[in-house]
C-alpha cells in the first residue's frame, strides 16, 4: 500500500516585480500554512519522504509544514522538476518514487495538483486551495503502478477557520 499526501503551496504574493519562481508567501499564506499543518497530525504517517518544488512559495510552505509536524527541514528534498503545472509531469515524478518508501508528501503547484487528485483520487475536488492538503491511499505496492486511489482526507484552510 502507498500513501500520497499532496499539498498545494500557500498563498503567494504578486506584488513584487519578481519572476514567478521567486514569489514569496503572503502573510495570509504563512498563516494558512501554519493553520493547516497544525491540524494534520492525525493524518501523517509515522515515516515518510518529503519532496517539494524548489520554487520559493512551495519551499517556504514545505518548511512551515516541516516545523509543525516535527520533520527535519534538512530532510526535505527540493526538486526543480516539481515546479510544474502539468499533472502528467507530476504523475511521472510521483511514479519515480523509490518503492522503499510507502509514504510520500509532495508540495507543489496547481493545476497539476487539482488535476492529479481528480485523476487518481475517488473524490472530485473543484480546486485544491492554497495550503490545501489531500491524502490519497493506493492499494499498490509500487509507485510506478499507482491508480484508482482512495481520497482519505482533504483539509483546506477554510475548513479550519
Write a compact overview of the structure shown.
The chain has 161 residues and is α/β, with parallel strands linked by helices. It has one domain (2-159): Rossmann fold (3-Layer(aba) Sandwich). Helices cover 26% and strands 20% of the residues.
Description:
The protein is of the alpha/beta class and 161 residues long. The protein has one domain (2-159): 3-Layer(aba) Sandwich (Rossmann fold), CATH 3.40.50.1240. Helix content is 26%, strand content 20%. The chain has helices at residues 27-37, 56-68, 87-95, 112-120, and strands at 2-8, 49-53, 77-79, 103-108, 133-138, 150-155. It has a 6-stranded mixed β-sheet with strand order 3-2-4-1-5-6, with helices on both faces. Strand 2, helix 2 (56-68) and strand 3 (77-79) form a beta-alpha-beta unit. Helix 1 (27-37) packs parallel to helix 2. The chain is globular and about 45 Å long. It starts with a strand and ends in a 6-residue tail after the last strand.
Strand content: 15-25%
Helix/strand order, N-terminal first? EHEHEHEHEE
CATH architectural type = 3-Layer(aba) Sandwich
Shape: globular
**Largest sheet, if any?**
6 strands, mixed
Distance between the termini: 33 Å
Q: What is the CATH homology-level superfamily?
A: Phosphoglycerate mutase-like
Number of domains: 1
What gyration radius follows from the Cα positions, in whole Å?
A: 14 Å
Number of helices: 4
Supply the CATH class. Alpha Beta
Mean pLDDT value? 96
Structural class: alpha/beta
What's the total number of strands?
6
Query: How are the strands ordered across the major sheet?
Result: 3-2-4-1-5-6
Amino acid at each position: 500500500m502507498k500513501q500520497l499526501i499532496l499539498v498545494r503551496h500557500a498563498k503567494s504574493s504578486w506584488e513584487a516585480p519578481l519572476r514567478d519562481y521567486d514569489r514569496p508567501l503572503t502573510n495570509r499564506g504563512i498563516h494558512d500554512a501554519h493553520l493547516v499543518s497544525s491540524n494534520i497530525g492525525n493524518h501523517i504517517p509515522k515515516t515518510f519522504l518529503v519532496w517539494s518544488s524548489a520554487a520559493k512559495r512551495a519551499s517556504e510552505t514545505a518548511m512551515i509544514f516541516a516545523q509543525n509536524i516535527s520533520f527535519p527541514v534538512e530532510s526535505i528534498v527540493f526538486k526543480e522538476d516539481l515546479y510544474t503545472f502539468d499533472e502528467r509531469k507530476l504523475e511521472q515524478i510521483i511514479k519515480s518514487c523509490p518503492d522503499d518508501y510507502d509514504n510520500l508528501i509532495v508540495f507543489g503547484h496547481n493545476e497539476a495538483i487539482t488535476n492529479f487528485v481528480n485523476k487518481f483520487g475517488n473524490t472530485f475536488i473543484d480546486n485544491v486551495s492554497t495550503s490545501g492538503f489531500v491524502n490519497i491511499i493506493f492499494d499498490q505496492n509500487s509507485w510506478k503502478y499507482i491508480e484508482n486511489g482512495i481520497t482519505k482526507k482533504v483539509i483546506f484552510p477554510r475548513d479550519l477557520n
